[in-house]
Amino acid sequence: MANGTTRRILVETKNLSKDPPPGISAIPDDENCRYFHIVMAGPQGSPYEGGLFRLELFLPENYPLTPPNVRFLTKIYHPNIDKLGRICLDILKEQWSPALQIRTVLLSIQALLSSPNPDDPLANDVAYTWKTRTSEAIIRAKDWTRIYAME
Length: 151
Known about the structure:
Belongs to the ubiquitin-conjugating enzyme family. It holds the Pfam family UQ_con. Keywords: ATP-binding, Nucleotide-binding, Transferase, Ubl conjugation pathway. GO terms for molecular function: ATP binding; ubiquitin conjugating enzyme activity. This is Ubiquitin-conjugating enzyme E2 N-like Protein. There is one protein chain. The protein is α+β, with helices and mostly antiparallel strands. It has a single domain (about 1-150), classed as Ubiquitin Conjugating Enzyme (Roll). It has helices spanning about 1-20, 100-115, 125-130, 135-150; strands at about 25-30, 35-40, 50-60, 70. The protein has a 4-stranded antiparallel sheet with strand order 1-2-3-4. The relative contact order is 0.17. The mean pLDDT is about 95.
């Protein structure tokens, strides 16, 4: 099993470097092929546009039977991402399938930035603002992007 898993990780890594998803770089760590350094551009037309967000992605021992662990290292104001950078996304939990790949996960996270879901929040305070004072939440998300995600 371990060899098959390692082979899959190597194939996915090769595909990510050969054909990276638009606006996303995923670089495997030199020391650990299961750990990836991710840089994700904020999607155009979203409050995160212009920002470059650092994330970490780790493939657990039983990957692809269990989903990767992914979290934001860059602070972000988003109802589905908490202060620790954890992400509330169905394919990282109950909707995970071994047919999914790192690429799919990263594109799904990028899509989540374009369409926050305050009805399934991880950051309740942010979700509340997003639902009750949307324009204020968007301004705050843009401010945080400028402060934390722009060099």
